[in-house]
Amino acid sequence: MKHKIAVSAIACLLLCIPGCGRPINESRLLGAWQFDVQRTTMTIDTNHTYTLKADDGRTTLGEWKLQGNRLITIGQTWTNASGAMRVTLTNDTRITELTDSRMILQNWGGEASTLTRVVANH
Fold this sequence. Notes:
- The protein has one domain: Lipocalin, CATH 2.40.128.280.
- The chain is 12% helix and 55% strand.
- It has one helix and eight strands.
- An eight-stranded antiparallel barrel has the order 1-2-3-4-5-6-7-8.
- The radius of gyration is 18 Å and the shape is globular.
């Protein structure tokens, strides 16, 4: 019986550890973030909108929401040199690290993107 209790306790701890961190406060996301690999800046605003701006002039505007450690962005307008186009692009990523200067987003396929804060709290 003691063995079953110990195994159950360990299994419970292992399942809880990933979700036991304190919830992410939305205010920690606000500001402008530069993707380290791409030449793209993401600005996250207090009104739950965001803007992605690439160095080549492409822009995506949309809304964002935070669910636990998941940052979900829904792109609504995509713009390039030819003009603007209405789109629906949903990106559901997991925030695996968040400090005052760095954020790591991991998509569900396992690929991670590192972002560096360039402007704090809009």
